[in-house]
Amino acid sequence: MTLVLIGPPASGKSRIGKRVARILGVPFVDTDKLVVEAHGPIPDIFETHGEPHFRSLERAEVARALSTDAVVSFGGGAVLDADTQRDLAGHSVVLLTVQPHAVIARLGNGKRPLVPDIDSWIALYESRRDLYERLADHTVDTTDRPTDVIAAEIADWARAEHRTPRPTRTTRPTEETIR
Ligand SMILES: Nc1ncnc2c1ncn2[C@@H]1O[C@H](COP(=O)(O)OP(=O)(O)O)[C@@H](O)[C@H]1O
Ligand SMILES: O=C(O)C1=C[C@@H](OP(=O)(O)O)[C@@H](O)[C@H](O)C1
Ligand SMILES: [Mg+2]
Fold first, then answer.
1. Predicted structure pTM score
2. 15 pocket-lining for ligand 1 (C-beta < 6 Å)
3. Is 85's C-beta closer than 6 angstroms to any atom of ligand 1?
């Protein structure tokens, strides 16, 4: 399966994606991590080459990640790419949301050049909200909730989503076949 986590910065895609992959026993891929491994820190890429260059590096890693069976956590802006939007139609996509009061504590490290503070985070989220919602098959709010609970919920949803359809029943289902 390829399960993709999308959503605004600090919604928990990287942290929760890793846990979901562990629960499901599949590899975990973080597209930002792939970009950093190949090209160095994200703030440096933005500063030296600008956002369009970062987006093209990101798109290449997204395309590679989507060809693997894995849980894939995107960077928040990866969905802006038209080819990526098209590719997502063939995958299970979970949108993580979060309310501003919870984001303030999560923005901490200054590694996100587009969201130096909560006001810029709110503006960025508002500008993308419709897109995120349009691309998502399932939405999970992460505000004030423990990551292990959220990850378990997403893993349950993914299992149900990927369960192969059962053959047509010819007899009345028993308690056991229902389960
Ligand atoms: N449900 C949660 N509750 C509290 N903190 C969280 C939660 N999910 C993520 N975090 C923390 O918020 C920060 C951003 O999470 P991260 O997974 O990097 O988000 P994203 O990849 O969406 O930008 C990290 O410090 C992470 O540990
Ligand atoms: O929303 C965005 O445009 C970005 C989100 C970041 O990833 P996270 O969403 O994992 O923080 C990272 O890709 C880059 O700073 C740009
Ligand atoms: Mg991340």
1. 0.92
2. yes
3. no
**Cα distances (Å, whole numbers) of residue 6 to 12, 50, 76, 138, 179:** 9, 22, 6, 10, 31
Supply the pLDDT for residue 111.
78
Distance 27 CA to ligand 3 centre (A): 16
Structure tokens at 20: 């979901």
Residue 169's pLDDT is: 47
ipTM score assigned to the predicted complex = 0.98
Measured CA distances, 84 to 41, 66, 131 (Å): 22, 9, 12
> Which residue ranges make up each domain of the chain?
7-178
Q: How far is the CA of 160 from the centre of ligand 3 (A)?
A: 25
* Predicted local confidence at residue 130, as pLDDT: 98
Q: How far away, in angstroms, is 102 Cα from ligand 1 center?
A: 10
- What CATH fold (topology level) applies to the domain 7-178? Rossmann fold (3.40.50)
Task: Kindly state the average pLDDT of the residues 89-117.
Answer: 91
Q: Is the pLDDT of residue 61 over 50?
A: yes
Query: Ligand 1 in contact with 59 (CB < 6 A)?
Result: no
